[in-house]
């Protein structure tokens, strides 16, 4: 397929089968072309927005970036409804159709290997959080060390109880970290049993995670489609099982499989 409009070429994704053209794509000028039995979803864009200099300026504009990144992801997710995809990063530009065709032809075998690896699988994110206040409320039940010092405090004089209480606060801080480590290992291990691959990401502070509680897991999993319902049910069961620490699991997907694209170049 083609388009009469010319300009820079903006790439969304590569698939091994023809993507289904949506009516909204026609309005946006999105189409695909074939190279060595691979299909590239793309559109022509203006140098006014997407030349090397102009795109750098536009990316600095948060409103422009937000709108266009959402559009980029939507097109890829549209294709994902019926195809396995290799998603390209936002703002991937080629100057000519000839250079793009040459690129796809050069790495055709690599692209086919990746598409085969990703076939019938989806990327899902899993973020786990703990409610520190709830842990503190239940700390004597969760920690033998805290339970023991509570017994000592109850049988001590006021002066000694004061000193032991200060010691207790230090113990609680250490025990909370220990609880976080133990729970994160257990929850991650359970989730990973249903996945084909995983990637671990940085633990985000509360102000960046959009959750006021403490993040203990930030991961993405590559999961076979037939396991998705089981994965979500498992997450729900883990929340119930760890109610005493206020465990919250945020499971989202499917996402374009950026985390699991293994290409040498």
Description:
The protein folds into 2 domains: 112 residues, no CATH class; 139 residues, Alpha-Beta Plaits (2-Layer Sandwich). Helices cover 50% and strands 22% of the residues. The protein contains 12 helices and 9 strands. Strands 1, 2, 3, 4 and 5 form a 5-stranded antiparallel beta sheet that branches. It has a 4-stranded antiparallel beta sheet with strand order 7-8-6-9. It is elongated. The model has no long low-confidence stretch (mean pLDDT 88).
Proper CATH architecture of the largest domain: 2-Layer Sandwich
- The overall number of domains is 2
- N→C terminal distance: 28 Å
Structural class based on helices, strands and sheet pairing: alpha+beta
DSSP strand count: 9
Q: Please identify the top-level CATH class of the largest domain.
A: Alpha Beta
H and E order: EHEEHHHEEHHEHHHHEHEHE
Helix proportion range: 40-55%
How many helix segments?
12
Beta-sheet strand percentage?
A: 15-25%
Cα Rg: 25 Å
Main sheet overview? 5 strands, antiparallel
Quick check: average pLDDT?
Answer: 88
**CATH topology grouping of the largest domain:** Alpha-Beta Plaits
Task: Give the overall shape.
Answer: elongated
Uncertain residue segments: none
What descriptors fit this protein?
Alpha-Beta Plaits; 265 residues; 2 domains; 22% strand; five-stranded antiparallel β-sheet; four-stranded antiparallel β-sheet; 12 helices; alpha+beta; single chain
């Amino acid at each position: 397929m083609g388009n009469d409009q010319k300009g820079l070429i903006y790439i969304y994704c590569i698939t091994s089968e023809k993507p289904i053209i949506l009516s909204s794509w026609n309005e946006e000028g999105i189409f695909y072309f074939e190279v060595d039995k691979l299909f590239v979803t793309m559109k022509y864009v203006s140098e006014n927005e997407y030349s090397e200099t102009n795109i750098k300026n536009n990316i600095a504009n948060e409103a422009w970036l937000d709108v266009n990144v959402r559009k980029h992801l939507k097109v890829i997710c549209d294709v994902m409804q019926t195809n396995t995809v290799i998603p390209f990063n936002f703002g991937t530009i080629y100057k000519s159709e000839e250079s793009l065709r040459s690129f796809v032809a050069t790495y055709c075998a690599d692209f086919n290997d990746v598409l085969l690896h990703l076939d019938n699988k989806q990327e899902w994110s899993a973020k786990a959080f703990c409610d520190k206040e709830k842990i503190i409320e239940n700390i004597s039940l969760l920690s033998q060390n805290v339970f023991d010092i509570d017994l000592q405090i109850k049988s001590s004089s006021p002066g000694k109880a004061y000193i032991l209480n200060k010691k207790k606060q230090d113990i609680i801080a250490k025990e909370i970290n220990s609880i976080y480590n133990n729970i994160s290992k257990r929850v991650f291990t359970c989730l990973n049993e249903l996945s084909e691959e995983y990637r671990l990401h940085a633990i985000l502070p509360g102000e960046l995670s959009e959750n006021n509680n403490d993040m203990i897991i930030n991961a993405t999993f590559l999961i076979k489609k037939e396991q998705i319902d089981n994965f979500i049910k498992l997450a729900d069961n883990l929340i119930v099982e760890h109610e005493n620490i206020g465990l919250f699991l945020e499971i989202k997907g499917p996402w374009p499989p950026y985390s699991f694209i293994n290409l040498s170049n």
